[in-house]
Design a protein that fits this description.
five-stranded antiparallel β-sheet
């Protein structure tokens, strides 16, 4: 999948309800997938619309290599405490074809991207303080990133959900890291 990065921030939701418009949403000629939910102090409604690229319904063809569809994701959020409302829109392109090019799938793929961002990159940025690393020459930055990923993944496989706490616990005794990797001490 070659999907463009989107500009909205991730959010976790509970009580999610999904509905797909059986006909195109009002004012459009394209099918949409609508989800709504409430959690983390806010209510959210997200609409994903998908339009094929090329000579479709008289629209001009777009010459973008391998792109088959363009999509629009609209997110409307209301914060429960302040009643502040916000609206975000993001456009993207994808090379998905056939049954995989459906608004519900596109919405899931975009949300999955943010799941990875939150699960790994946030830990690397905040817990490992990777942005402050002074390692900048040769292959050392890639080696250090690989070691950080190994430490994070190993702790997750061991069942730890708080990586910072797990790293502190392991750092207190040098044999714990070896035991975690299955190396006898």
């Amino acid at each position: 999948m070659n999907a463009a990065r989107t500009t909205f921030s991730p959010s976790r939701r509970t009580n999610t309800v999904s509905t797909a418009c059986s006909t195109p949403c009002p004012g459009t000629k394209f099918p949409a997938h609508i989800t709504s939910g409430s959690g983390h102090g806010r209510s959210e409604r997200r609409t994903v619309q998908l339009a094929p690229l090329g000579d479709f319904l008289g629209y001009p063809a777009i010459d973008f290599p391998h792109a088959t569809h363009a999509f629009l994701i609209e997110r409307y959020t209301t914060h429960h405490t302040s009643q502040k409302r916000s609206a975000h829109a993001a456009l993207g392109l994808t090379s998905l074809t056939g049954r995989y090019a459906h608004p519900a799938h596109i919405g899931g793929y975009v949300r999955s991207h943010w799941h990875i961002e939150n699960k790994l990159h946030w830990v690397r940025d905040v817990t490992d303080n990777e942005d402050q690393s002074r390692t900048r020459t040769g292959t050392a930055p890639r080696v250090m990133a690989s070691l950080r990923n190994l430490a994070t993944s190993t702790h997750r496989q061991a069942g730890h959900t708080n990586i910072a706490q797990a790293l502190r616990h392991t750092a207190r005794n040098t044999t714990r890291a070896l035991t975690l990797l299955g190396i006898p001490t």
